[in-house]
Amino acid sequence: MAEPYGQPQPGAGLAHCYRHPDRETGIRCARCERPICPSCMISAPVGYQCPECVQGGSAAVRAARPRTIAGGSVAADPRLVTKILLGINLAVFFAVLAGGDRMVTDLGMLGYAIDGETFTWIGVADGEWYRMLTSAFLHEQIWHLGFNMLGLWFLGPPLEAALGRARYLALYLISALAGSTLSYLLAEQNQLSLGASGAVFGLFGATAVLVRRLRYDFRPIAILLAVNLVITFTWSNIAWQAHIGGLVAGAAVAFGLVNAPRERRTLVQTGTCVVVLLVIVVACVVRTAQLLG
User: Pick from 231, 286, 265: which is nearest to 69 by CA?
Assistant: First the structure.
């Protein structure tokens, strides 16, 4: 009866380790059957394996790792990025409560206006481009923060799980920038706006695209989106431009993410994000030229 792999073979003429030719051994790799010495053998479910077979098995496991519909890695916690975004919004809200209105004036979305205290020009047109992103994390009222964070918590985790963390974060930030961009284009130049609504509406648009892609029932998200659009255009003091800009950009980015062909997936997905960002940049440059002209 043959001896099982991993057990010393008695008798003369022992083989030599394939990695250490000067060492005799009666142990062979359970996968490739090459002789291995005690320094090279790695315990396996059955017998021992050589370092190369162990590395090859790990690579095969990595290659077989499941992917999301957009090609992202399946994460153990599909809410991590959403939790971080929630945390940032909450932290900034408490900072606003502690710092007062000046923080809102310095970081809110503003096209071009005169600062009432210093009598100097401020706003995106004056070079304060950071406002387009910082404004998306600013909230003054608790109800405003509550509505936006409820939307983020409701829409974010399913999208994060479906797209993967990096793609989901790109979708969120681009939607926020697009919302600020449409506000910059269409709102009054001295109108100050703030809030995560543009980014959240981007998640609405992305959810609609994903639901259609997966052929789920489209009616629930359509009804929810319709209700939010009615609120957008009927309630006062709502920057509807940010909502629409985020919605359109979120849908466009999501369409490129979930419909990219597998053979050129990364290229198409990156290209989609770059094209949307280029539209944002061109629109902002044109608007700045109008305000400063």
Answer: 265
